[in-house]
Amino acid sequence: MVGKQLFFKCECFQKAGAFKIRGASNSIFALDDEQASKGVVTHSSGNNAAAVALVAKLRGIPAHIVIPRNAPACKVENVKRYGGRIIWSDVSIESRESVCKKVQEETGAVLIHPFNDKYTIRALDITSGAARWPAEPAAFEFATRRQSSAASTEPVVRVRLI
């Protein structure tokens, strides 16, 4: 049609259903084994919570997810489905951060900040080339399968998270 190759960034095909999976993967797979062994902690009322829980499950480490009491039930269910340990907080950012700090002190878990983390930020812009990758980035690869057929093994989208 336009005589050019087009690339689409289809967030709905991301493994956890949103772009947050890239940041969570980049941050969690960048941890060395000693850091990762203690698990990770984050605060979120939605997609970041699910993404961190899923990536921690894939890496085989604990995920402590601080969720405000007013979070949508469907988001809480996603975290549970991915194996995250839910810790409730009040709604304010101060409460979320305070509860995260307490979890860190109790468990030694590494904070995966939902938006203010260099590995999370680096993973958010994979198309424009504006991101600056680490020299040897942690990588994680998965394929999103066709939604129309649960039996299909043909990848629709193959993503290498750096």
Automatic annotation (TrEMBL):
Q: Which residues form the Tryptophan synthase beta chain-like PALP domain?
A: 3-123
GO terms (molecular function) for this protein are: ATP binding; D-serine ammonia-lyase activity; L-serine ammonia-lyase activity; magnesium ion binding; pyridoxal phosphate binding; serine racemase activity; threonine racemase activity
SUPFAM superfamilies in alphabetical order: Tryptophan synthase beta subunit-like PLP-dependent enzymes
State whether keyword Cell membrane applies: no
A biological-process GO annotation: L-serine metabolic process
The record's listing under InterPro entries reads:
TrpB-like_PALP, TrpB-like_PALP_sf
Q: Which Gene3D superfamilies match?
A: 3.40.50.1100
UniProt entry keywords in alphabetical sequence: Lyase, Pyridoxal phosphate
**What sections of the protein cross the membrane?**
none
* Cofactor (UniProt): pyridoxal 5'-phosphate
Record's superkingdom? Eukaryota
The family line of this record is: Belongs to the serine/threonine dehydratase family.
Instruction: Identify this protein by name.
Output: Tryptophan synthase beta chain-like PALP domain-containing protein
Q: Organism source for this protein? A: Miscanthus lutarioriparius
